[in-house]
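Q: Predict the bound structure with zinc ion.
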Amino acid sequence: MLAGLLLLAALACARPDTLPPMTTVTPAPDVHSFARPAEARVTHVSLDLQADFTTRRLGGRATLTFVRRPDASEIVLDTRGLEIQQVLSEDRQVLAFRLGPAVQHLGQALVITLPASGDRITVEYRTSPDAAALQWLTPAQTAGKDHPYLYSQGQAILTRTWIPTQDSPGIRQTYDATITVPRPLSVVMSAKSLTPDGTDVGNRQRAYRFKMDQSVPPYLIAIAAGDLAFRALGPRTGVYTEPAMLERAARELEDLEQMIAAAETLGGPYRWQRYDVLVLPPSFPYGGMENPRVTFVTPTILAGDKSLVSLLAHELAHSWSGNLVTNATWGDFWLNEGFTTYFENRIMEALYGKPRALMLATLGRDQLVRDMAAMAPADTRLSIDLEGRDPDEGTTSVPYEKGAALLQTLESAVGRERFDPWLRGYFNRHAFTSITSKQFVVDLQQELIRDDKALLDAIDLPAWLDQPGLPAAAVAVRSPALALADDQARRFSKGAAASSLAVAGWAPQQWQHLLEQLRTVPLSPSQLRDLDATFRLSASGNSEILFAWLRVGVARQFPPVVPPLERFLTGQGRRKFLRPLYQDLMQTAWGQPIARRIYAAARSSYHTVSSQTIDGIVK
Ligand SMILES: [Zn+2]
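A: Predicted complex:
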């Protein structure tokens, strides 16, 4: 306690505006980090890195500012695959360091002997060409085909493959960076840009400078470099992407300002000044990554009709849940994703109405129920034990949808008049901190439940957090529009012609649902041909509908879906789409050779986040 108070006093003098007082609380123990933050804890990272697209390495230095206990003799950082050249003190003395044994998933501890005084060290290093966080694309792998491209993906514990720091979501850090790239590439980071056009530094190189004054978990430090164009969408919003995709992306994202206004009504003021969106090349393994100030998204959301912008509502919601209030460990991942899934749905309701929000919520709930039936019961708890495992294994629909179901149930129990002020207050009370599930429970009891004993019993928090499955108390979600799709699926499976189905004016989510229902029904090849010919499903520009249709075709071993399937699996690298399709194929003797052939051709174009998952499926 005493050390904590002393640190707080020291920080208050040195950097009053960059670190809130809560960050001096010792972070929760994190089984996915080697750091010993109670002894010495990184508070700021200053990067000076050069990108070499020929050797596929970032190289240079990271200067770390830290707070320390007076008796601390070492600082421990997380690294994986970094080549450490030397470590220097503030007065440029060489400091002793050692790398610990390599541990699966986690990498190696970098243990540095601290000088007797000082609060800053510099690590000189370079990344390995196969750093898991970094994807280096050849010009051929981009939309424009003329220039190489680099982007990072730090979540969950990949930042340590490009920055030697304490890589735990509970150890928040501010950062600044100078990144040098060959001309004419430009650089975007999850920080304020100080030199939007860069500065020529000779030898056909250009440097870009950035600054992030608000403390973030290290997984949110992000970079992209390529032939990037920018278009403003509103006073604080805009889109970055390759010039070839700019027009299309700007059209699809034109509701962004409205979306932020809707989110602020629920979460309180947007605190990160700008909200830009970077539309990445197709290999991006996720739908989106909520990097602060600039969300990274897959181009598969560009459906042409804004039908997939709920993904953007999700990433925007993370500006509150995840980025402002962060899960302290990956076992508390639902605090990021459950809150965000709930929040996303409220944004969609405010912008596009209750029926659409209800469709999305119902699709999410159905997915949860299907997934949980096939999962180990222990992994269906919200507070999950990931010791000895890759935190990525916790990325199932449980933290998202069971977490959202808990908040939907709370909302329905107390009504929005009580629930909404609590939610806004929760973001305020914990702003710029990382919290555990236990802290959530304390907040909920003190600020929402208070002395409402009946509510406490009705909610049954232990059943949500520590027990498997969906608690009986979970509020039901049911979309009438999806019930219509159910009816049509039933009619079709019983032999009705596709042209006789009542589908006029259907939302894409209804199509998705219809196809999801048909996947488990024994349809004949002529029925499948009828469905595809009538609705042109194989040619759908909506990636969710195409995905759902391809799964129907694969389930029925329907040869005409193989060409569109091959195009889809080689044309984008989003793991959410890849994993189920490869899994479906590998389940049958018919599908196995198809999966192996397509994967052999596509693997090198995928990000390692995706290829590591698919390596375990296609053997
Ligand atoms: Zn999310």
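A: The radius of gyration is 25 Å.
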